[in-house]
């Protein structure tokens, strides 16, 4: 069962493996995603498709290094998660590697029968 503490580690591992299905499984069936490249998805199929498109393109060789994170309970079965990452290995359209950059994962999590899933997940680049 996915714990709140497992969520950012699971996200980073699935991202590094370019495993769109595992990333999509972190988002609840009624959840939504705003991806690092700005893709918006609000169905399970669209969420997986968004992650797959990024894994086949800009993030084909990308890795995440976990930085400072914080979670805050919002109720007995909901929480806010904020996790900073450093992204390395992202590719330009030409195939050249982009400089590493900071990103923030912000998720509203809900505890369900299989553990914690995101009902809203935003992964945004930091300035």
Q: What is the average per-residue confidence, as pLDDT, rounded to a whole number?
A: 96
* Model regions low in confidence, pLDDT < 50 over at least 5 residues: none
Main sheet overview: 6 strands, mixed
Q: What number of structural domains do the residues give? A: 1
Q: N- to C-terminal separation?
A: 35 Å
The helix count comes to: 3
What structural class is derived from the secondary structure elements? alpha+beta
Q: Tell me the overall shape.
A: globular
**SSE order, as H and E?**
HHEEHEEEE
CATH class: Alpha Beta
User: Which bin fits the share of residues in helices?
Assistant: 10-25%
Describe the fold and architecture.
It is a single chain. The protein is α+β, with helices and mostly antiparallel strands and 127 residues long. It has a single domain (6-125), classed as Nuclear Transport Factor 2, Chain: A, CATH 3.10.450.50. It is 24% helix and 45% strand. It is built from three helices and six strands. The chain has helices at 6-16, 20-25, 44-56; strands at 27-34, 40-41, 63-75, 78-88, 101-112, 115-125. It has a six-stranded mixed sheet with strand order 2-1-6-5-4-3. It starts with 5 loop residues before the first helix and ends with a strand.
């Amino acid at each position: 069962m996915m714990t709140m503490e497992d969520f950012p580690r699971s996200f980073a591992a699935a991202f590094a493996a370019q495993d769109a299905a595992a990333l999509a499984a972190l988002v609840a069936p009624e959840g939504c995603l705003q991806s690092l490249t700005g893709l918006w998805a609000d169905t399970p199929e669209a969420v997986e498709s968004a992650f797959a498109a990024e894994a086949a393109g800009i993030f084909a060789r990308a890795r995440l290094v976990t930085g400072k994170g914080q979670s805050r309970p919002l109720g007995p079965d909901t929480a806010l998660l904020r996790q900073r990452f450093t992204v390395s290995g992202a590719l330009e359209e030409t195939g050249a590697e982009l400089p590493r950059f900071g990103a923030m994962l912000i998720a509203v999590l809900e505890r369900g029968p299989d553990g914690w899933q995101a009902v809203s997940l935003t992964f945004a680049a930091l300035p």
